[in-house]
Design brief:
Strands 1, 2, 3, 4, 5, 6, 7, 8, 9 and 10 form a ten-stranded mixed β-sheet that branches. Strands 11, 12, 13, 14, 15, 16 and 17 form a seven-stranded mixed β-sheet that branches. By secondary structure, the chain is α+β, with helices and mostly antiparallel strands. A hairpin with a 2-residue loop joins strand 6 and strand 7. The protein has three domains: about 240 residues, no CATH class; about 140 residues, no CATH class; about 130 residues, no CATH class. Helix 3 crosses helix 13. The longest helix is centred in the C-terminal third of the chain and has 41 residues.
Length: about 650
């Protein structure tokens, strides 16, 4: 009895860290003695934890990781909306009104895409640029790594020729010269003075490498230029103002524009979305919903893994009943037994978690390659699926939770033994104990089957969504299709006929190359559109009764051979040919969608329509052909209608 008392006092008075270290060493010895069991548990956990870590890495990159702007959650992107159609850019009319009268906005800015020819050692290099108001970059809260941003004086008409350069362009031009400020660069034959260098990977908007002041007086512009929806609008919400409140206010102001300019604004509205969505080219938030669905699916997978491991531990607990009963009879309390078994569970969880992180590291390149998301800006930030501190913290959290989840029930059950004698009696009367174990295992099996069924259904829906995204009918054949941009310097090709002659020569040479079946040129390559490419049309002899009946579709200028090179499907009539270039009256090939909008149930061949821009009408164009719809936009450049 004295020996038993001494053992009890030693166990009760044992230091926590010492007992924990004993449990760790004992658990490791146990796992080495049963390598098969250990391997099965670790692999099972690695699958669940690895899948969750990989999906969270994508979620973190797309939706959580801080961007190189200040307080991104308060930044919004604005767009003009027309009932039933995709979003447009913002006009100067909208911008001036919202800038001056919107009380929910702390600041706002406007940007327009530009392209320059940068002369380097006598050779031109095309540079994607943005002409911005002085308030655009300050609204974003961008901090230059060298120099400063634009001032209000530099943004006035006739202001100095100054420029901001991106970090990558700074490295290319000046080899990261620490003193680029004040140096001049040649843009389209005009010297621009560099006043600042923007942070690495910052390229908003338009994936730009260069920024210049817009230098526009809105009031002095012709009305058609003020009304053109050709710009990108960003704004910063005031503190305590929600997106919904700001959106409602701007919609109210847009109704005033509709009343003041009914000839061009009838049926128009305005909308705001979080700026991060615009950078993801996902205005309706479908990427968020898809990631949440994937997160739920891999969460169920982890629960199934936990249930499987719990089943294995319960089964293993049967073989350890005598061992645990002896420990109880020697004085170990129930909490001490639970600590020992939970320590073993956490050791298994940490081993599975480590293997899961390695699995996630291996899976991330595949996830990045399969994602249909194409960032409109800040791509190096938004699509950089990697394991950073936040991901590791998440992995640690689910590892601890997993170890506790699958280990607690078996530990409590095993520690509930009343001693050695009762264990021996249960061994002699095995039938009753067998029924109890069967009930526990049956409950786990039923739970696993329910989770598996849910995972199967959810996984099928997610897989179906991904399949739809990956197998969208593009309306053309991308296999073997090569594209390149062909910018022409206004200084070298000042007149339109000079540009046309050069393009004709290029096409002739390309078509003569071996293996080339067809070649053409277009103003916009499919899948690379922005928010300003849709055009409004007027149909001859058909006045729309409602704003939603006004035909709107993407408008492209193309050469003969373009449709053949793209591989579009001709449904009716003919495609453009070389003779169309010299015709007195322009001709046009239209899509199925435009036919549905303009001539439902009618033969469109020979019908006429014309483009309408800010109240200005273009020449009538005769329809000579109908082609299958071509997908012009990115993954999800859509938005819910107002």
């Amino acid at each position: 009895m004295r020996g038993g008392t001494a053992l009890d006092s030693r166990i009760v008075g044992e230091r926590p860290m010492h007992s924990l270290w004993q449990d760790v060493r004992y658990g490791l010895r146990t796992f080495r003695a049963r390598p098969g069991f250990t391997a099965v548990v670790v692999i099972t956990l690695a699958l669940g934890i690895g899948a969750n870590t990989a999906i969270f890495s994508a979620f973190n990159a797309l939706l959580l990781r801080p961007l190189p702007v200040a307080d991104v959650d308060r930044l919004v992107f604005g767009m003009a909306l027309r009932e039933g159609f995709d979003p447009f850019g913002t006009s100067f009319l909208d911008y001036a009104l919202y800038r001056d009268e919107a009380r929910s906005l702390a600041s706002s800015g406007l940007a327009t895409q530009r392209q320059f020819h940068l002369m380097r050692e006598g050779e031109p290099e095309r540079v994607v640029a943005a002409a911005v108001t002085a308030s655009y970059l300050t609204t974003l809260g961008v901090k230059p790594v060298a120099g400063r941003l634009f001032t209000a004086d530099e943004d006035r008409p006739g202001g100095p020729a100054v420029a901001l350069v991106g970090h990558a362009l700074w490295q290319r031009l000046f080899a990261s010269d620490p003193a680029p400020i004040g140096r001049a660069i040649d843009l389209d034959g005009t010297p621009y003075t560099i006043v600042g260098v923007l942070p690495p990977a910052f390229d908003a908007p338009f994936s730009s490498e260069l920024w210049v002041p817009m230098q526009v007086s809105i009031e002095a512009l012709p009305f058609d230029q003020r009304a053109a929806t050709a710009h990108e609008f960003v704004a910063r919400l005031k503190p305590a103002v929600s997106l919904q409140q700001a959106d409602a206010e701007l919609k109210q102001l847009a109704r005033r524009l509709e009343q003041e300019h009914p000839q061009i604004r009838r049926g128009w509205s305005f909308g705001l979305v979080p700026l991060r969505r615009q950078y993801l080219a996902d205005l309706d938030g479908r990427a968020e919903r898809l990631l949440l669905a994937l997160g739920v699916a891999v969460g169920f997978l982890l629960l199934i893994c936990c249930a499987n491991v719990a089943s294995l531990l319960l089964a293993r607990g049967v073989s350890r009943e005598t061992e645990i009963a002896i420990r109880r009879s020697l004085g170990a309390g129930r909490s001490r037994i639970v600590q020992q078994l939970l320590t073993e569970s956490l050791l298994l969880a940490f081993a599975g978690g480590g293997a899961g992180v390695l699995l996630a590291f291996w899976l991330l390149p595949a996830i990045g390659a399969l994602t249909p998301i194409q960032a409109a800006a800040l791509g190096p930030w938004l699509t950089d699926f990697r394991i950073d501190g936040r991901v590791l913290f998440f992995s640690l959290g689910i590892t601890l939770s997993t170890g506790t989840l699958f280990g607690l029930a078996p530990a409590l059950k095993a520690a509930g033994s009343n001693g050695l004698i009762s264990t021996i009696k249960r061994a002699e009367h095995h039938a009753g104990a067998g029924k109890e174990r069967k009930r526990s295992l049956s409950a786990l099996v039923v739970g696993e089957m329910a989770l598996a069924a849910t995972l199967l259904v959810g996984g099928g829906l997610v897989a179906q969504s991904f399949h739809r995204l990956q197998s969208i009918d593009l309306g053309f054949h991308p296999d073997g299709l090569l594209t390149m941009e062909l910018p022409l310097s206004p200084a070298r090709y000042p007149a339109l006929h000079h540009q046309v002659d050069f393009i004709d020569q290029v096409l002739q040479r390309v078509r003569a190359l071996p293996g080339v079946l067809a070649a053409g040129i277009t103003t916009n390559v499919p899948m690379q559109r922005g928010t300003t490419m849709d055009s409004i049309f007027e149909v001859e002899g058909r006045a729309p009764l409602r704003p939603s009946e006004v035909p709107i579709t993407a408008h492209r200028l193309v050469s003969p051979g373009y449709a053949e090179a793209l591989g579009v499907t001709l449904l009716e009539g003919r495609l453009l040919d070389a003779d169309d270039h010299g015709r007195a009256l322009p001709v046009v090939v239209v899509s199925e969608e435009l036919v549905r909008q303009s001539w439902p149930g009618e033969d469109p061949i020979g019908k006429r329509l014309r483009r309408v821009r800010a109240g200005q009408r273009g020449p009538w164009m005769t329809v000579v052909g109908v082609v299958k719809d071509v997908k012009e936009d990115r993954f999800n450049f859509r938005v819910a209608r107002p």
